[in-house]
Amino acid sequence: MSPPEGPLGIIAGGGGLPVRVAEAVAASGRPVAVAVLDGHGDPEAFAAFPSQAFRWGLAAQMLAWLKGHGVRQVVLAGTVSRPSLLSLRPDAAGMKLLARIGKAAFTGDDSILRAVMKVLAEDGFEVVGAQQVLAGLLPSAALLAGPAPDDLARADIQRGLAVCRALGAADVGQGCVVQQGLVLAVEAIEGTDAMLDRCGALRRDGPGGVLVKCVKPGQSRLADLPTIGPRTVEGAVAAGLRGLAFEADGTILLDRETTIARAAAAGLFLLAFDPGEFTEGTTA
């Protein structure tokens, strides 16, 4: 990452990550300017910082606002659902920006992110990952909580990794739930929490399932990395799962101490894994 110059711009979606990035950067003494995506992020959460909400159709105004605050480096942080064409209602400048993004705006999530980052770079911004400004977000491979996965759970993780890679190759999602070799649910546009909500009614008798999350093949590491946190653990408990397994050094772990403590209290394993350990054809 280049040496910091001026305020850090944050394009903020939903969830706790954008707030944590803003607070950490401000605490380091560097100013921040937060452009909140209307309908995704909560403007009130950024009341302590220079901030303004923008809808997608006014994205060109948003970039001009960031430039007006002296921003050169930008972090894309938080959950965002892809807008529909009817919801955009772009102004004239927004129409031009949308034309530059092109059809990627209405295809896969990673496609639009790559296109957006390309537009940002063309407009003079440097996109940096949240993990570059907030240390400790990406755990290394380790069993963080609970009992070590048994052979059945390890088989479910291996199956889940293969499914996630297939989903990711199609630019669809980053997670799935597998129980006793059966895929109970896959993550699409609804996100992890909603996926877990569906799983409770689908669970089978016997050992519970496993939530598996991993980075999409070829995905940029600058935005939209898989994320888990306390709410993920709560959803896993409600769905009757027995563990969460996520790609080490590629998955954001929010509220690390709280997430680990809740998993441990519920008796769930929380495993940051090296994909090579669970790739088909390898031995444990």
How would you sum up this structure, described in words?
By secondary structure, the chain is α/β, with parallel strands linked by helices. It contains eleven helices and 13 strands. A hairpin with a 2-residue loop joins strand 7 and strand 8. Helix 8 runs parallel beside helix 9 (230-238). The protein starts with 7 loop residues before the first strand and ends in a 6-residue tail after the last helix. The model has no long low-confidence stretch (mean pLDDT 86).
Short characterization:
This protein has 284 residues and is of the alpha/beta class.
Descriptive terms for the model:
five-stranded parallel sheet; six-stranded mixed sheet; 284 residues; elongated; alpha/beta
Termini gap? 36 Å
- Contiguous runs where pLDDT drops below 50 for at least 5 residues: none
Q: Into which percentage range does the β-strand content fall?
A: 15-25%
Question: Which structural class best describes the helix and strand composition?
Answer: alpha/beta
Strand order of the largest sheet: 6-13-11-9-7-8
Bulk shape: elongated
Roughly how many Å is the radius of gyration? 19 Å
Instruction: Provide the helix percentage.
Output: 25-40%
Largest sheet: 6 strands, mixed
Mean pLDDT: 86
Tell me the total number of β-strands: 13
Count of helices? 11
Give the helices and strands as they follow along the chain.
Answer: EHEEHEHHHEHEHEEHEEHEEHEH
